[in-house]
Amino acid sequence: DSVFAAVVQAPEDPILGVTVAYNKDPSPVKVNLGVGAYRTEEGKPLVLNVVRRAEQLLVNDPSRVKEYLPITGLADFNKLSAKLIFGSDSPAIRENRVTTAQCLSGTGSLRVGAEFLAKHYHERTIYIPSPTWGNHTKVFALAGLSVKTYRYYDPGTRGLNFQGLLEDLASAPSGAIVLLHACAHNPTGVDPTLSQWEQIRQLMRSKGLLPFFDSAYQGFASGNLDADAQSVRMFVADGGECLAAQSYAKNMGLYGERVGALSIVCRSADVAVKVESQLKLVIRPMYSNPPIHGASIVATILKDSDMYNEWTIELKAMADRIISMRHQLFEALRAKGTPGDWSHIIKQIGMFTFTGLNKEQVAFMTKEYHIYMTSDGRISMAGLSSRTVPHLVDAIHAAVT
Ligand code: PMP
User: Which of 47, 99, 184, 388 could form an S-S bond across to 217 if both were Cys, CB 3.0 to 4.6 Å?
Assistant: First the structure.
């Protein structure tokens, strides 16, 4: 008998499991709105042209070898990533108060940051929004932090529960860590306005709460890299400290290359040097050092103004297609006379729409219409196309009537 005979079957991941179920469905009309990855109007994955160009340059450069990177990754990549999120004129960067480590995409950056905080930060409680990306709870709990939630989404208005958010942060213990989605909150698509961000900032700074930004969608939400980083930059502009986890999965389409960065903004250059030395001790026993290919693609694009511009154009095209899907879906529901107020579809931001459909309605749509999405009613707008909108509208209409 196996020594592992007592191992019980684990459930599928609630998000990635949607694609597993989709792949098993033989129906020709099936639609996968569970996957958090961009698809073209033809439903195909997209490799950006500028990424192909950068890869060509890398392949044709004979000086490139496959040596190990340092523990914190590619130096150029780290510098350029910090500039991308904090702004090229950021005083924190100029004053050498930022330490950046290339990590395994957004998830790995969150995990390394969490492990560092669990070891070296005095308050081991992290507040995450309710709801949030399902992996947050596990990443932070497994790193040794105690995970609590703050109110975020109001199902009544399908918008932000701003009062609840402020109350919960106001009653958090001073020094607690607060996870903030930099933009395009997943799964709700609901972001604070700039003036709400300012109030959040003031409250957090007055209580000494430590911001940990998760930036998985910079540029992908509005189509503008600077606009999508505003929340983070407000918190850096006040001279205070924070962490930021960046992912290039969505905005450069580098999903499987696993490219991301963790930055820690410190009060002084002196502190930043010590923090970096401890980040190395976190990373070394975890995976020694990060992979070279994806980070080289990113660095190649970010340091060349021509490639950088091409990237911003391709990025905006992805963001625009998603925004256009929001309008098409909204208009089609209205044209069909589907009961309910669907204006949240065009108000929400980023890759996802939090439809408000409940678990039973989602199960019905999957069973009768072969439409796949997470059970909380979240649909990926990137998985939708002009061709599939009518089918989705039929399904939603049938589910709510
Ligand atoms: N944070 C959020 C909010 C996300 O939506 C995602 C991607 N689904 C991630 C982090 C991390 O993704 P990755 O590890 O692929 O960069």
Answer: 184
Distance 245 CA to ligand 1 centre (A): 10
For residue 9, count CB atoms less than 10 angstroms from its CB and return exposed for 0-12, middle for 13-18, buried for 19 or more.
Answer: exposed
Residue 74's contacts (CB-CB under 8 Å, 6 or more residues apart) are 102, 290, 292, 295, 296, 299
Termini Cα distance of the chain: 53
Tell which atom from ligand 1 comes closest to the C-alpha of 36.
8
**Distance, CA 135 to ligand 1 centroid (Å)?**
8
Tell how strand 125-130 and strand 177-181 pair up: parallel
d(CA 226, CA 213): 15
Segment 175-212, tens digit of pLDDT: 999 999 999 999 999 999 999 999 999 999 999 999 99
Residue 230 gets the label, from left (phi > 0), alpha (psi -120 to 50) or beta, of alpha
E strand or H helix at 231:
helix 230-237
Tokens representing 341? 């107020």
CB atoms within 10 A of CB 210: 18
Ligand 1: atom nearest CA of 351 is 5
Which amino acid is residue 131, in one-letter code? P
Question: d(Cα 172, Cα 149) in Å, to the nearest integer?
Answer: 10
For the beta carbon of residue 376, count every other beta carbon within 10 angstroms: 18
Question: How far does the centroid of ligand 1 lie from the alpha carbon of residue 338, in Å?
Answer: 32
Ligand 1 atom nearest the C-alpha of 181 is 3
Cβ count within 10 A of residue 102: 32
Mutate to test the pocket of ligand 1, among 81, 140, 186 (most ligand atoms within 8 A of CB): 186
Rounded-to-integer distance, Cα 44 and Cα 217, Å: 20
Q: Whose CA is nearest to atom 1 of ligand 1?
A: 216
Q: For ligand 1, say whether the CB of 107 is within 6 Å of any of its atoms.
A: yes
> Helix and strand tally (H, E) in the chain?
15, 13
Look at residues 28, 40, 36 and name the one whose alpha carbon lies nearest to residue 379. 36
Q: Each residue of 281-330: pLDDT tens digit?
A: 999 999 999 999 999 999 999 999 999 999 999 999 999 999 999 999 99
Residue 256, amino acid:
G
